[in-house]
Amino acid sequence: MRLVSFALLAALSGSTLAAPDLQKLSAEGAALIPPFQQHLLDTVKSALQDGGPAQAVAACQSLAPQIAAQHSAAPWQVGRTALKVRNPDNVPDAWERRVLEQFAARIAAGEPVAEVRHAEVVDGEFRLMKAIPTGEPCLACHGSAIKPELAAVIDQRYPADQARGFALGELRGAFSLRRPLDAQ
Ligand code: HEC
Question: Residues in domain Tll0287-like (predicted)?
Answer without folding.
Answer: 59-180
